[in-house]
Design goal:
206 residues, single chain, mainly beta, Porin, 2 helices
């Protein structure tokens, strides 16, 4: 009996020695790395629009600008859109030849690029830049316009936003309005450039 048991064990070892162990292996090919892209299969697209009120100084006088911006929201964070603003209160420019005082009319707009940091948080930051152009002119008391002029504008800014509802955001923030190309008598680029503080309202699908 011992001889039979020994022969049985030898047969088992021989079988295992000849068994193709590679059949028990699962070959795993390394996953090919994909390029990181702005748009991909899981891209989400939203949109918003809303009014904005800005407070600033123009020609050393307090000024109120009213306008708005809107755009497409990519993956809840990147925004490509447009915005525009216009002066709503009277700003006087004096000592204009022939020694007459005029009121200023002023407006600008352009492309807006924006990035939202941690948009799902109740409070979050938004960094944005407007690049475009505008125009201004003088107006007398009889609403006649004089000396139209065009200019370049770049306005980077930062807002602190509050998620009020899924479809509504409100924010406060500031920006700096850089203007170049002013060629009117009585005004310089510095007179219409300057810091602003403002209120932003956004309605849309975020």
């Amino acid at each position: 009996m011992q001889s039979i048991g020994l022969i049985f064990m030898i047969c088992q070892l021989t079988y295992l020695g000849n068994f193709d162990m590679s059949a028990n292996y699962i070959r795993i090919s390394p996953k090919q790395r994909e390029d990181e892209t702005l748009l991909h299969d899981r891209t989400t697209i939203g949109a918003f629009v809303g009014p904005i009120v800005k407070f600033t100084e123009i020609n050393d006088d307090f000024a109120v600008l009213v306008g708005g911006r809107g755009g497409l929201i990519i993956n809840h964070a990147f925004i490509i859109g447009a915005g525009g603003y216009g002066l709503v209160n009277d700003i006087m420019v004096d000592n204009i030849p022939p020694r007459q005082d005029y009121f200023l009319e002023f407006g600008y707009g352009g492309l807006v690029l924006e990035y939202i940091l941690r948009p799902r948080k109740l409070l979050h930051l938004s960094v944005h830049t407007l690049i475009g152009g505008g125009s201004l002119c003088y107006r007398d008391n009889w609403y006649e316009h004089w000396d139209d002029d065009a200019f370049f504008v770049a306005e980077p800014g930062l807002d602190l936003m509050l998620n009020v509802t899924k479809c509504f955001r409100i924010g406060i923030g500031g920006s700096y309005r850089y203007i170049a190309g002013i060629g009117l008598d009585g005004l310089t680029n510095k007179d219409v450039s300057g810091a602003t503080a403002g209120l932003t309202f956004k309605f849309g699908r975020f």
